[in-house]
Amino acid sequence: MHPHQQNKPQDILCDCSGTTKTKIRQLIQQGSDTLDKISRATGACSGCGACDYELMQFLTAEQTRLSQPPQDAS
Ligand code: FES
Protein backbone atom coordinates (compact mmCIF):
# COMPACT_ATOMS: atom_id res chain seq x y z
CA MET A 1 0.00 0.00 0.00
CA HIS A 2 1.48 3.30 -1.05
CA PRO A 3 0.88 6.16 1.38
CA HIS A 4 -0.08 8.46 -1.46
CA GLN A 5 -3.02 6.31 -2.44
CA GLN A 6 -4.87 7.44 0.63
CA ASN A 7 -5.49 10.90 -0.70
CA LYS A 8 -5.33 10.43 -4.39
CA PRO A 9 -6.95 13.23 -6.41
CA GLN A 10 -9.83 10.99 -7.50
CA ASP A 11 -10.95 11.02 -3.90
CA ILE A 12 -11.73 14.72 -4.07
CA LEU A 13 -15.40 15.44 -4.50
CA CYS A 14 -15.39 19.21 -4.08
CA ASP A 15 -12.55 20.90 -5.91
CA CYS A 16 -13.13 24.30 -4.35
CA SER A 17 -12.71 23.17 -0.76
CA GLY A 18 -10.58 20.10 -1.49
CA THR A 19 -13.10 17.94 0.35
CA THR A 20 -12.55 14.23 -0.16
CA LYS A 21 -15.07 11.42 -0.31
CA THR A 22 -13.17 9.83 2.56
CA LYS A 23 -13.76 12.92 4.70
CA ILE A 24 -17.43 13.07 3.78
CA ARG A 25 -17.86 9.38 4.53
CA GLN A 26 -16.36 9.96 7.99
CA LEU A 27 -18.77 12.82 8.65
CA ILE A 28 -21.74 10.73 7.58
CA GLN A 29 -20.66 7.96 9.93
CA GLN A 30 -20.38 10.56 12.69
CA GLY A 31 -23.96 11.63 12.12
CA SER A 32 -23.87 14.38 9.50
CA ASP A 33 -27.01 13.31 7.69
CA THR A 34 -27.71 16.29 5.48
CA LEU A 35 -25.91 18.06 2.69
CA ASP A 36 -26.13 21.23 4.75
CA LYS A 37 -24.25 19.77 7.70
CA ILE A 38 -21.54 18.36 5.47
CA SER A 39 -21.26 21.64 3.66
CA ARG A 40 -20.83 23.57 6.88
CA ALA A 41 -18.32 21.10 8.28
CA THR A 42 -16.12 20.97 5.20
CA GLY A 43 -16.84 23.99 3.05
CA ALA A 44 -18.02 21.67 0.29
CA CYS A 45 -20.63 23.22 -2.01
CA SER A 46 -19.93 26.68 -0.64
CA GLY A 47 -17.88 27.76 -3.65
CA CYS A 48 -18.90 27.28 -7.24
CA GLY A 49 -21.60 24.74 -6.39
CA ALA A 50 -20.58 22.40 -9.18
CA CYS A 51 -20.25 19.51 -6.75
CA ASP A 52 -23.81 19.91 -5.49
CA TYR A 53 -25.26 17.02 -7.47
CA GLU A 54 -22.35 14.68 -6.87
CA LEU A 55 -22.34 15.41 -3.15
CA MET A 56 -26.06 14.69 -2.92
CA GLN A 57 -25.63 11.44 -4.84
CA PHE A 58 -22.73 10.43 -2.64
CA LEU A 59 -24.62 11.25 0.56
CA THR A 60 -27.66 9.28 -0.54
CA ALA A 61 -25.57 6.31 -1.60
CA GLU A 62 -23.63 6.26 1.66
CA GLN A 63 -26.77 6.52 3.76
CA THR A 64 -28.36 3.69 1.84
CA ARG A 65 -25.27 1.60 2.31
CA LEU A 66 -25.07 2.33 6.04
CA SER A 67 -28.76 1.69 6.66
CA GLN A 68 -28.64 -1.77 5.15
CA PRO A 69 -27.31 -4.74 7.03
CA PRO A 70 -24.18 -6.18 5.47
CA GLN A 71 -25.18 -8.65 2.82
CA ASP A 72 -23.43 -11.65 1.52
CA ALA A 73 -22.79 -11.09 -2.13
CA SER A 74 -23.05 -14.74 -2.95
S1 FES B 1 -16.48 22.08 -6.50
FE1 FES B 1 -17.55 22.18 -4.62
S2 FES B 1 -18.13 24.26 -4.46
FE2 FES B 1 -16.94 24.20 -6.27
Structural summary, described in words:
The structure is a single chain. With 74 residues, the protein is mainly α. 45% of the residues lie in helices and 7% in strands. The protein has one domain: Arc Repressor Mutant, subunit A (Orthogonal Bundle). The chain has helices at residues 21-29, 35-42, 52-67; strands at 12-14, 19-20. A two-stranded antiparallel sheet has the order 1-2. Bound molecules: FE2/S2 (inorganic) cluster. The site of FE2/S2 (inorganic) cluster (FES) has 10 residues, from loops.
Summarize the structure.
45% of the residues lie in helices and 7% in strands.
Q: Main traits of this protein?
A:
single chain, 74 residues, mainly alpha, Arc Repressor Mutant, subunit A, two-stranded antiparallel ribbon, 3 helices, 2 strands, globular, binds FE2/S2 (inorganic) cluster
